[in-house]
Structures are given as C-alpha cells and as structure tokens.
Amino acid sequence: MAVRVQREDFDTGAEIKRLTAGRTDIGAIVTFTGTVRGTAGGQGIATMTLEYYPGMTEAELERVEAEANARWPLQGTLIVHRFGELAPGDNIVLVVTASPHRQAAFQSAEFLMDYLKTRAPFWKKEAGPDGKADWVDARESDDAATARWAGKAQ
Predict the structure, then answer these.
(1) Sheet holding 28-35, edge to edge
(2) Which fold has domain 2-147?
(3) CA 112/CA 145 separation, integer angstroms
(4) What is the separation of C-alpha 130 from the centre of its chain, rounded to a whole number of angstroms?
(5) Which of 60, 94, 109, 146 fits 30 for a cystine, CB–CB 3.0-4.6 Å?
(6) 60 vs 79, 83, 103, 120, CA distance in Å?
(7) Packed helices 56-71 and 102-118: angle between N→C axes, nearest 10 degrees
(8) What does pLDDT average to in each consecutive run of 10 residues of the chain (154 residues)?
(9) Are strands 2-6 and 76-82 parallel, antiparallel or unpaired?
(10) Distance between CA atoms of residues 125 and 15, nearest Å
C-alpha cells in the first residue's frame, strides 16, 4: 500500500514496475490515470488548480486504500495525487491495483476512483482562457457512483 500527494508529475510505467517488482503472485494489474481536460461544460480550461490539506488528506487516502485492501484480495495498491496548478493534458491522479485475479483489481480500482472523485479532501478550481476561475462542484452522477459501495463487502 502506498499513498503520495505531490506537486511533481509521475511516470505510470515506473510506478507499476516499482509496485510489482519481484512479485509473481500478481495476475492482474489495473491502472487509472486521470488527466486535465481542455474543456468542461463546453468551456475552455487554461489551468486547473488543486488544493489540499497536508496531513489530513494523506491520512484519508490511506484510510480508503486500507478499506479497498480489506474488501478485495489485493497484492498491492498505489494512489498518487498531484496538487498545484496544472495545464490541459497534465496528469492529475494515478490509481494502481494489483491482485491475483482481474475482477478484484478492476473493482478495487473503480472503488478507489469513485472515492477520489467525490470524497477525497481536494479542492479544484478551473480557470478559462480569460483568466476567470471557478471552484468545481461535485456532480450527482459521481455521488451516485460512490453510493453503490456503501456497506457492500466483496
């Protein structure tokens, strides 16, 4: 299990290699990489700024990662989330799950991403080409995706 919140970019291939090095008990590796889109709601995005609360955020990510490991038979998990000002095309988040079988790897990655999208203590502000910036609100569809995991053990 590993959680990192960092300003600098990450290398997905290097992260997978580090997580799985020397492991022959892993049969499935699922990755999700979130990137900054160039548009949202039909409007152009020049930058996205991500803010977080140091210490609290990492502890909360570790808690949900431990929950994923309790729900599914996982050999490894990794969450890397960036903060600061990002441009369209930049990496935002990486989730990697490793398990003996694909179903656990897929489901746990989806669980972690649903959580990160709705409950992780990050705040996003998007600025358009004109410099006007707005905080990003949660979407009902994301909340509905997260709600399906409530009380659901695998």
Answers:
(1) 2-6, 76-82, 91-99, 28-35
(2) Aldehyde Oxidoreductase; domain 3 (3.90.1170)
(3) 11
(4) 29
(5) 109
(6) 12, 16, 25, 7
(7) 150
(8) 96 97 96 95 92 95 96 97 98 98 97 90 94 81 68 56
(9) parallel
(10) 27
